[in-house]
Design brief:
Structural class: alpha+beta
CATH class of the largest domain: Mainly Beta
Number of strands: 13
Length: about 200
C-alpha cells in the first residue's frame, strides 16, 4: 500500500497568471486541489519542502494529506508543470480521493531473483521493456511497486504480464498479454549461433 505523506499549504484567494507569478516570487509553488464533486481549492506550497518531496521516488503514486487551515484533503498528484529552463516546479494539480476512488496510475516495476536466474548466470542480459506498468487500482491500495521474480527464466525467455502476480485489487489497463522484460542472449552467444547456422 502507498504511504500517505503530510503536507501543509496556504490557501490562495485568486487564480491567474499574475497571482501565480507573485506566489512564485514569494518562494512558493501554486497548486490546485480538485475532484470529488467539490469546488476546487487554490493553494500554495512552500518551495523547498515540496521540492524535496518531489524528487523522492514514486511522487505520482503516493497519497498526500494536505492541510489547509483547519481542513485536510487526501489527494493524489495528477499533473506537474516544470519550468523548461530551471526544471523547478511551477504548478501542481492534486485530485481529491477517498478509499473507494478508483484511479489509473503508473507503478514502477521491481525485479528480484537476479542472482538465481540461470539465464543471467550464463551471461544473458535482463532487457526491461516496461519500467512501469499502468494499473487501475483503488486510491487506498496503490502499490509502491510491482515485484517480478526472474529466478526461473533462461536466455531467450520473455516475461509476460500473465506470469506476474499483481497486488490484490489491481488490474492492468492494457487487455493483451504484453511483454514486461526478456532475458536476451549476450552478443558473443548470438555470434556463435550465427556462425553455427
Amino acid at each position: 500500500m502507498t504511504q500517505i505523506i503530510p503536507l501543509s499549504a496556504e490557501a490562495r484567494d485568486r487564480a491567474g497568471k499574475g497571482t501565480a507569478r507573485a506566489t512564485r516570487r514569494a518562494n512558493r509553488v501554486p497548486a490546485v486541489i480538485y475532484g470529488a464533486k467539490l469546488p476546487p481549492v487554490m493553494i500554495s506550497l512552500e518551495f523547498h519542502s515540496f521540492n524535496h518531496i518531489l524528487h523522492k521516488p514514486g511522487f505520482f503514486t503516493h497519497l498526500f494529506d494536505i492541510k489547509v487551515g483547519e481542513e485536510t484533503h487526501r489527494v493524489l498528484p495528477r499533473d506537474l508543470q516544470l519550468d523548461p529552463v530551471s526544471d523547478k516546479p511551477v504548478h501542481v494539480d492534486f485530485l481529491r480521493v477517498t478509499d473507494e476512488t478508483r484511479i489509473t496510475v503508473e507503478v514502477p516495476v521491481e525485479f528480484v531473483g537476479q542472482e538465481k536466474c540461470q539465464g543471467l548466470k550464463r551471461g544473458g542480459m535482463l532487457n526491461i521493456v516496461r519500467h512501469e506498468i499502468e494499473l487501475e487500482v483503488s486510491a487506498a491500495n496503490i502499490p509502491e511497486h510491482v515485484t517480478i521474480d526472474v529466478s526461473a527464466f533462461d536466455i531467450g525467455d520473455s516475461i509476460h504480464i500473465s506470469s506476474v502476480t499483481l497486488p490484490e485489487g489491481c488490474k492492468t489497463t492494457i487487455d493483451r498479454d504484453f511483454t514486461v522484460a526478456t532475458i536476451a542472449a549476450p552478443s558473443g552467444l548470438k555470434a556463435e549461433d550465427e556462425t553455427a547456422a
